[in-house]
Amino acid sequence: MTQSVLHTALERFQALDEKISHLESISGLLSWDQKVIAPKKGRAQFSKAYGALQTEIFKLMISQEMGELLDQLSESNEHFDTVTQAKIRLRKHFYNRSKRIPSDLYKEYSVLCSDANDAWEEAREKNDYSLFLPYLEKIVEIKKVFVEYYGYEKHPYDALLDEFEPGLTVEVLDPLFASLREKSIALLNKIKATSHKTPVEIVKQPFTIEKQKEFNRYMLPQLGFDLDAGRLDETVHPFAQTVNTGDVRITTRYLEDNVLSALFGTIHEAGHGIYEQQISSKLEGTVLCSGTSFGIHESQSRFLENMVGRCEAFWQYFLPKLKEFFPTQLHKVELQQFYEAINTVHPSFIRVEADELTYNLHIMLRYEIEKELFEGKLEVSELPAVWNKKMEEFLGIVPPTNTLGVLQDVHWSFGGFGYFPSYSLGNLYAAQLLKTMKKELTEFDQYLENGHLQPIMSWLKEKIHQHGSLYTPNELIVSVTGEQLNAAHLVEYLEEKYSRVYQL
Prior knowledge:
Blueprint: H1 3-36, H2 43-61, H3 64-75, H4 82-98, H5 103-126, H6 133-150, H7 156-164, H8 170-193, H9 209-223, E1 230-234, E2 240-244, E3 247-252, H10 259-277, H11 294-308, H12 312-325, H13 327-330, H14 335-342, H15 356-374, H16 383-395, H17 421-440, H18 444-449, H19 454-463, H20 473-481, H21 488-501
Parallel strand pairs: 1-3
Antiparallel strand pairs: 2-3
Helix pairs in contact: 1-2, 1-3, 2-5, 3-4, 5-6, 6-7, 8-15, 8-21, 9-10, 10-11, 11-17, 12-14, 15-16, 15-17
């Protein structure tokens, strides 16, 4: 291939990549609108419009032009810079996975998922699984077809994992989760056996929602979330949505009798938002302008929520600020008491409100259910009963309603099978990054004590955020920490933390 032909092919590819990225930006805005502010009566028609847009984006991504360009450019990959090579890698990965999926089927699936979100919200509100059941059955049916189009070597669930954490397989994940589950349950049993009780009643009081909102808006810029490049809204299930690096939208949910829900939900979503805001502007308008994987993305939100937000040093600075907003509830509360209260270990029904230790058990429960669904061992109609059975097995509790059980998560309504393991992977990545960060930022605790998070966010920007999807998850974690993903770091972190909290 001559240089002239190669140059023309590259220009066409760059233009196509940019067009798709811009359309996805618009699609992201529409998705946010539907979940946050769209009137209910217009949502059915909205779903059709959204499905049409998603289908056009999909057609471009698997078009004949895209395939031909990827073939041409892949032959001369060594002539390109790192950024161009990464663009080709990501576009080719999606193309090879999805090129056999008929566009009509993809459109049907997109409209279905948009409608399913509304059905899920209603079912959750009314505690009526039957309202969501037909949508979920159809989603699973189509996802099983997709899995066959994607292809897999050993397990059908591998094709779903690959969408969120490229290269991850059941063969790798099963022993990783088995080890983490064993050690988590052992630590949980130690905590149950101790006589030490944390003053959890501190956070069980009524906290005015308006004041919670005020504190969150005060706290976000302190964390590093740029409100001039983002916004905070309310929704049924907290999420983050990127329109572009200068427009990153996060949401939270407020409960008057559970101040921790919005507090840590907001910190969590801020972790996602800061990641997206700090991606290099050079990657804007390309396939690389997003987090490299869902596991790495969750590492940023789980790190900020737990390893910063539930750290005693963090509250040495922020507790006096919180007391200014809630003097009646907190004026007599000491730092150690508050630290123990927000780190109380107690098996709970809701994943997003779970403590750090039992959180991973919630993920493993969903992982086991999803595997069984795609192995053909489980029907969608059986999910509520199986969910409750596994909750009792994993956490020793049974949800009294489906709203507190199988209907609590939004993920299945958008077909996000394979997503849940990313949360526990995020915990694993985060613990490994924390260990490296503390070696390099020796004043880590002092920064938190002074409410000075800028050095921490700058470190994350340099090591993780600015690169977007330039590197694979494994390349990134090895380059930053010097080793492959190692579960021992999370186990060590949890044992050290809870031994202190519970005086083990």
